[in-house]
Batch of 2 targets.
Target 1
Amino acid sequence: MSPTEQNALILPVKQGNFVVSTRPVPSPKVGEILIKVKAVSLNPIDSTIQTVGYMVEKYPAVLGMDVAGEVASIGEGVESFSKGDRVFFQTNPPIGPDYGGYQEYALAMVETVAKIPEKFTYSQAATVPLTLTTAAVGLFADAPSGAGLNPTWDPKVQYIGHSALVVGGSSSVGIFAIQLLKSLGFTHIIAYASATHTEYLKSLGATTVIDRNKVPASDLTAAVAQICGQVNIVYDAVFSSEGQAAGYEALVDNGHLLSVRATPDAYVPKDVDDVRGRKVTTAYGSPHMPNNKVFGKILYKKLGGLLEKGTIVPLRIEELPGGLESIVGGLDRLKAKSVSGKKLIVSL
């Protein structure tokens, strides 16, 4: 039986300061499960929500998007999960604090929960949901959400001979984008990242790493041209306006640029864009958004198998000691951009 009270990292008011306090343990409704949280990963979006005050309107709020844990209880109508199952999922804080990850127990909707393969730890599984979904929506989902490369996750779909550029290749979203492009058979997968991550990124599927410390964004288009001429897909995984502009110039006619935050007004020449057919899309990495719900259900049905087969590999991790108390310091590190090539994880 679950306790009635729990510890949580709470955001009391809009644009307030995080505090560790107690709150009730929720009960699962129809189609929901209650998860005993074992590990959470930290994402920059949590700091953005706190400082800017967007997405979440219900306060006090509990943030935290990525959770891995154990099923503590199940709601009415749930047949695909049992008490004690090891699972991971992407939370939905905007609908209420019961659904945030920075607490000891959180609710989840079964349609976007997956079981953890035995070979992975809770900490490893917690690195996956948000940033994988962001990469997958952009690349695989149909318009208007993404480029529509493989919306049904058909393993037979391949893009032999195609090329892609991933700006921010060592970021969490970038690392998953590289793996997804590899699964689609792209011939050239170019990562724009620090050369310190070259070996790691190539092990995941990158065919070339352009060192961002030696090649400025202003020279990126030319560097790509030397490798493969032009690219069919650009994924800006780090909101780089300069990287987007260079990537857009490197696109073939009818190519597609995806970004975690696209700024096409800064570089799209409207007079010729219709002729060349190049497209720009912001990828919103939530399976809970109306446009993404069907795709999200398909993703979560496939997700455990993708991990089991090695098609998707969890991110490298750094464990932060101290439980809930350590989250704020970890978010400060993300805000300062002092973390690269790994995920910060807190175990509870």
Target 2
Amino acid sequence: MRVGLCYDLRQDYLDAGFSAEQTAEFDAPETIDALEFVLRTRGEQVERIGHLQSLVNKLARGKRWDYVFSIAEGISGIAREAQIPALLEGYGIPCVFSDPTILSLTLDKAVTKRIIRDAGIPTADYRVLRNPGDLEEFSLPFPVFAKPLAEGTGKGISAHSFVEDLEGLTLQTQKLWQKYSQPVLVEHYLSGREFTVGILGQGKRSQVIGVMEVTFKESAESFGYSYENKEHYEARIQYSLADDAEAKRAGEVALQAWQALGCRDGGRVDIRSNEFGKPHFIEVNSLAGLHPERSDLVILAGMVGLSYADLIGKILDEFLTDLPNRKIPHGLPRLRPFRSRSLRFRKAL
């Protein structure tokens, strides 16, 4: 089949003046090379598309694909991860991973937590701070944990995210508002173990492939899986497979969350336990990083005996199993370009 490959290449954005943190979720050339290699070994005809603007240009020139494998994160907006899948949906082209609605939903951590809570899945109590008035009415007991509402890769998380009083929360919230220009999610702090859970599939077919515990070394920033900790994980983080009773329960909570949200094909769910060892949902990564060495899902897969090719192959198998349900039954008509009546009227004059 003809397959399009969409991605945001980090160096392109660095060259355009974006900072290292702003581009933290974007991809390295070796990720694109690795994905293309796996797709070609499966017999697919691969075309590198690149970012959203490149996709728009190719579609406008009449290019089409049987499906698109998109790992593009997008640069701005609460729906940035959904922009390419939504555009492709409008053209009737199926896309690997969750649909645009789910990708938008899961980037908004507060809305995601509301659904998780309503599904009866444990998650820490939280508040969303959108303006100074929300700080004046803040009612959660301290300590709490503050982070941007809609970021990934630990962006906006640091040792200062752990807050013990209202004065500290006010200071940290103002910093986050100024830097990220978005609401701040504040959660009751969970002091227990932290896990990330790899999941493949969708609905009843979805399954946990492994539970990986994230342990912070002495050199790490305290209290959370921050941007700096992730960037320097070799020196700051200890990863290990976990299969004790608490870890198994973490896997169960993660799977329940994945299914409740309607995620598809493959990704990760982050879990943290409270002081009593009860695992709670933190967030879901429905568009997980796929760097062949550095990404958490890939590291976890390697620990359970799955090579990079195995992991991508299983994601593709899940997608292709469901492909008939993601296609428009009779395809989309090739419509003529729109010309307004006012334009024709002016020409007539």
